[in-house]
Amino acid sequence: MERKIHVFDNGLKVYNDHLTHVQRQRYKRHNVHEAEEENIFNNIIRAIPANGCYIDIGSAIGYYPLLAKRLSPGLIICAIEPLERHRAFFMENIALNGFIQNDFIIYNEGISLADGEAKFVDEAYGSSIQRNRNKEHSVKTYIKTFLSFFGLQKTKNIITIKTITLDNMLKRIKKPVDLCQMDVQGFELDVLRGARHSLQGGSIRTFLIGTHGKKQHQGCIELLNERGYMIGFEDCYTKEQPDGILVAGRDINILDHCCPK
User: Fold this and answer.
1) CA distance 191 to 168
2) CA distance 195 to 185
């Protein structure tokens, strides 16, 4: 049986079975992945050097790396995705869109505060590194354990992944980064705190961050300001997508040109 293909308004294709019901419903309203963020993304990609470097942290099935390759074929594109299933979907979408695997550099680590290993909760597009909990369990934790034991609540699929700091990932990439985009489900501050040297030296020129909650959003603004980054655009409560948006950079010309007024 032939697999159904979803074609976005920008021409990008993904296999329909890669998508969730919630995503399909959202795409009926605006047939792009994130209506507000994509406009900013397109403008930034067109403004950075054609032979520049773009990294996507939490690339999932490859939507933004694939879109970047369509918009600017000469870019060096580094996609970072720790979930094996999503990397496999990404590979399928590379071929579906007429590209080859060598057009992208794909890493299987999670970006975190430290190099090593971490527990990773596999929740499809909501997947993230598991937060450390106090040894003392709350009443809520005991209730969840009780329900899981009797099959009344689905047990989360937790795997172990390798982790690396953004500082050390950039040492591996060995190039200044023109755009760093991330969607890490509430771990935005952890990623930035693991990039202290890169931020201080300005080796990441522009950030496009999908934020998750007011605390993370404001914390990222404060940290980036402290490191000399200017905020080009920020909206914690977007209307057409689930994540907030934060754009920060060191080049005022790019920020003025690319961000909504």
Assistant:
1) 11
2) 18
pTM given for the model:
0.88
| Domains, the chain, with CATH or none | 5-118+164-258 (3.40.50.150)
10 Å Cβ neighbour count for 214? 11
Count of helices and strands (H, E) across the chain? 10, 13
Using CA atoms, how far apart are residues 97 and 252, in angstroms rounded to an integer? 34
Of 19-23, 208-212, 252-256, the poorest mean pLDDT is in 252-256
CB 172, CB 48: distance < 8 Å: no
Could you tell me the two tokens for 40? 């900013």
Nearest to 166 by CA among 57, 54, 51: 57
Q: Which residues of 20-40 are buried (b: 16+ CB within 10 A; e: fewer)?
A: eeeeeebbeeeebbbbbbbeb
| Calpha distance 169→115 (Å, rounded) | 10
